[in-house]
Write a structure and sequence with these properties.
The protein has helices at residues 9-26, 30-36, 41-49, 68-80, 88-102, 105-117, 233-269, 281-309, 315-339, 350-357, 368-377, and strands at 122-125, 141-145, 148-159, 166-172, 183-189, 195-197, 211-222, 226-227, 271-272, 275-276. It has 379 residues and is of the alpha+beta class. Helix 1 runs parallel beside helix 4 and helix 7 (233-269) packs antiparallel against helix 8. The longest helix is centred in the middle third of the chain and has 37 residues, at 233-269. The model has no long low-confidence stretch (mean pLDDT 97). The structure holds flavin-adenine dinucleotide. Flavin-adenine dinucleotide (FAD) is lined by residues 123-127, 132-133, 157-159, 203, 206, 211, 360, 363-364, 366-367, 369-370, 373.
């Protein structure tokens, strides 16, 4: 097996703590959280207390100032534990990055330290009922009124939406007709009058992850909440999207590796016609194919991570990783369900949960069709 070379002893030490946290403090609550369709609010404070939120943020803003591989460790351990409920990485590795990269010192001081402790839960609200893939077509407006903007519109499928205390919202601030120039990013706190939330949406999988609609009705937001420059929202989004897509590739490989491990164990224990399922050539070939494909995916993702550390990951490489690894995850988990027989369709078995949870990986973060568009544009 090709060894992984990107992690140091410090990362591995951090991994042990992260593994303990997910297995002992998250997994036991999974069913209860699936029933209520969100994790307990206090788990955010607990994750913050343990130093698992916003780790890559500068220390002056409450983070640990460490490299993104620490975030990768958290994402992988969450996937190995089969936790699809906590939206920690979206909060720490997407929303916090927008505030840190594009916010001014005052904005960073106001929001980041509280995000690092879990006092503030954050979301990113791009998608609308009328538009998802075509981000430039958003219709939520922010109209100037003195020192404020008045925001009207709605967002859908927003991860952490139900529990969020603030959201980075993609708004339309102009009418130039050149889509991208009319878009800005506005931080909107959830307690502003006119900001309301729908009930968590009933999804096919990821039942413990809170995903909901957000509504804005004449919400007055001070101009001081604008992130970066007016009309530069699209450019800011593009800058971070490569990393966000790689995050999906990282969790796809880790989730599929976990599924393969579970399937190896299951097929060794289950006997059919007097022999373990793992003794049949079909099983051995399927397991071998999955191992080979995951090894190839893993090496590609780790190379992309090296590029991330050098700040050189290309849009097309991130799109390649996102599309190929999430497709692979779907294929691997589907085959793993098959090797479990009927038990693979029963929710008591982790593979069944993995099956329903993994489907969204091909949809969010930009659908895999959009990923192929991005790759094709570079050819
Ligand atoms: C569980 C979950 C969590 C999510 N979390 C968030 C979140 O936190 N924040 C947020 O803003 N959004 C979030 N989303 C939304 C997600 O990013 C969108 O659903 C996704 O971008 C697709 O948009 P859409 O649903 O409007 O599909 P559409 O854009 O309507 O796409 C429909 C189909 O058309 C295809 N298509 C679209 N354009 C093209 C094209 N140019 N060429 C070929 N095919 C095309 C798509 O690939 C897809 O198959 C989440 C979604 C899910 C399911």
């Amino acid at each position: 097996m090709i060894p992984r070379t990107i992690f140091s002893a410090e990362h591995e030490e951090f991994r042990k703590n992260a593994r303990r946290f997910f297995n002992e403090e998250i997994v036991p609550h999974r069913e209860a959280w699936e029933a209520q369709q969100h994790i307990d609010r206090k788990m955010w404070n607990r994750a913050g207390e343990l130093g698992f939120l916003c780790v890559t943020m500068p220390e002056e803003y409450g983070g640990a100032g460490v490299d993104r591989l620490f975030s990768v460790v958290l994402m992988e351990e969450q996937s190995y534990a089969g936790d699809s409920g906590s939206g920690f990485s979206l909060h720490s590795d997407i929303v916090a990055n927008y505030i840190n990269n594009f916010g001014n010192a005052e904005q960073k001081m106001k929001w980041l330290p509280k995000m690092a402790t879990g006092e503030l839960v954050s979301a990113i609200a791009m998608t609308e009922p009328g538009t998802g893939s075509d981000l430039q077509a958003v219709r939520t407006t922010a109209v100037e009124d003195g020192d404020d903007y008045i925001v009207n519109g709605s967002k859908i499928f927003i991860t952490n939406g139900y529990l969020c205390d603030l959201a980075v919202v993609v708004v339309k601030t102009g009418n130039s007709g050149e889509g991208s120039k009319d878009i800005s990013l506005l931080v909107i706190e959830a307690d502003r009058p006119g900001f309301s939330k729908g009930k968590p949406l009933k999804k096919v999988g990821m039942h413990a992850q809170d995903t909901c609609e957000l509504f804005f009705e004449n919400v007055r937001v001070p101009k001081t909440n604008l992130l970066g420059k007016l009309g530069m929202g699209f450019v800011m989004l593009m800058q971070e999207l490569a990393w966000e897509r790689l995050m999906i590739a990282i969790t796809s490989i880790a989730g599929a590796e976990a599924a393969l491990q579970q399937t190896m164990e299951y097929t060794r224990g289950r006997k059919v016609f007097g022999k373990p399922v793992s003794a049949y050539q079909n099983t051995r070939f399927k397991l071998a194919e999955m191992k080979a494909e995951l090894a190839i995916g893993r090496v590609f993702v780790d190379r992309c991570l090296e590029m991330v550390l050098k700040k050189k990951l290309g849009v097309d490489d991130a799109a390649t990783a996102k599309y190929w690894c999430s497709d692979l995850m779907g294929k691997v988990i589907d085959q793993c369900v098959q090797l479990h027989g009927g038990y693979g369709f029963m929710m008591d078995y982790p593979i069944a949960r993995a099956y329903i949870d993994c489907r969204a990986q091909r949809i969010y973060g930009g659908t895999n069709e959009i990923m192929k568009e991005l790759i094709a544009r570079t050819m």
